[in-house]
């Protein structure tokens, strides 16, 4: 496949891992990524992980602000196939119709479940038992094209966004390379999606980061790990924001959700709709991330008991 002319379109770390395997196995002639973005507290303009990898491998990078208005460079690269993964913009029909082998997307769910931009987050948040990777043909709608191949993986009880993403990156990278020969030879499957089974993995918004202890303990637990380590969830205590990175399910209960009902050696127990979530790793506002046991050092733990968070 080393003579296969590929244009790759992607942006985050997840897509970078897919690109790495494509560089080893095909001829990547152009990489398209989102423009450099301000990152961190100092808002330093930073290239995407995909752009950094492409430049390291001396591959031309194209970063249009709006691909629908600026795509001539993609067509001039004369690709046999265009492969996308978490690019972040809608691909116009002029690009979709161009390569003779089509436009292929690597999507991190078992379509038609969880179409959209945050399928891994939503799979954990929704309490799914498994997810996976879908290799699919692209069409003009969001993640609705024909399925070529899929591979599943269980969602473990202690998986968070980072661990599940890492596993799916590996699966996606390998499945794509295994699937490409059949696409080239025209022997691949082409399975229509069942529209009656469609669900959506919508992009995470700022309001999604706030923990709601009026929900069940399991839902709060899933919410925490679905956004950990980034962007992370948070609650408010004494008017200050506390980001949450890790927690475990407790067994105590109270008739008042959001109340701190116990202070343990390694965590703070907060009541939920049906029992207790024990917060074990936090980042107090303006400070570094720390285990809760370190946060509790020197504190009068009795002052926390009975406190209502998010008040």
Summary?
By secondary structure, this protein is of the alpha/beta class. It has 8 helices and 15 strands.
Notes on the structure:
There is one protein chain. By secondary structure, the chain is an alpha/beta fold. It has 2 domains: 5-197, Rossmann fold, CATH 3.40.50.170; 206-303, Methionyl-tRNA Fmet Formyltransferase, Chain A, domain 2 (Roll). Helices cover 25% and strands 26% of the residues. It has 8 helices and 15 strands. The strands form 3 sheets. It has a 7-stranded mixed sheet with strand order 5-2-1-6-7-8-9. Strands 10, 11, 12, 13, 14 and 15 form a 6-stranded antiparallel sheet that branches. α1 packs parallel to α6 (161-185). The radius of gyration is 22 Å and the shape is elongated.
User: How does CATH name the architecture of the largest domain?
Assistant: 3-Layer(aba) Sandwich
Cα Rg? 22 Å
Q: State the order of secondary-structure elements, H for helix, E for strand.
A: EHEEEHEHEHEHEEHHEEEEEEH
**Tally of extended strands?**
15
């Amino acid at each position: 496949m080393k003579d296969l002319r590929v244009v790759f379109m992607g942006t985050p770390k997840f897509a970078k891992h897919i690109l790495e395997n494509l560089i080893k196995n095909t001829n990547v002639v152009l990489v398209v990524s989102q423009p450099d973005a301000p990152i961190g507290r100092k808002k330093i303009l930073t290239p995407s992980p995909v752009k950094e990898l492409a430049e390291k491998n001396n591959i031309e990078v194209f970063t249009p602000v709006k691909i629908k208005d600026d795509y001539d460079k993609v067509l001039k690269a004369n690709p046999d196939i265009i492969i996308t993964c978490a690019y972040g913009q809608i691909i116009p029909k002029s690009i979709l119709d161009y390569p003779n082998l089509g436009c292929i997307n690597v999507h991190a769910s078992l379509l038609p479940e969880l179409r959209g931009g945050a399928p891994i987050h939503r799979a954990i948040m929704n309490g799914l038992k498994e997810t996976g990777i879908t290799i699919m043909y692209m069409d003009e709608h969001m993640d609705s094209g024909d399925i070529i191949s899929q591979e599943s993986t269980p969602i473990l009880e202690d998986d968070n966004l980072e661990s599940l993403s890492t596993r799916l990156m590996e699966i996606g990278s390998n499945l794509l390379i295994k699937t490409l020969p059949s696409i080239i030879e025209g022997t691949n499957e082409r399975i229509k999606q069942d529209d009656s089974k469609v669900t959506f993995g919508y992009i995470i918004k700022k309001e999604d980061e706030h923990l709601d202890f009026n929900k069940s303990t399991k839902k709060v637990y899933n919410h925490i790990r679905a956004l950990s380590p980034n962007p992370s969830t948070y609650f408010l205590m004494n008017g200050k924001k506390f980001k949450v990175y890790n927690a475990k399910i407790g067994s105590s209960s109270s008739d008042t959700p959001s109340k701190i009902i116990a202070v343990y050696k390694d965590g703070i127990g907060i009541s939920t709709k049906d029992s207790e979530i024990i917060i074990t790793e936090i980042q107090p506002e303006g400070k570094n991330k720390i285990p809760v046991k370190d946060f509790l050092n020197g504190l009068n733990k009795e002052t926390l008991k009975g406190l209502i968070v998010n008040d």
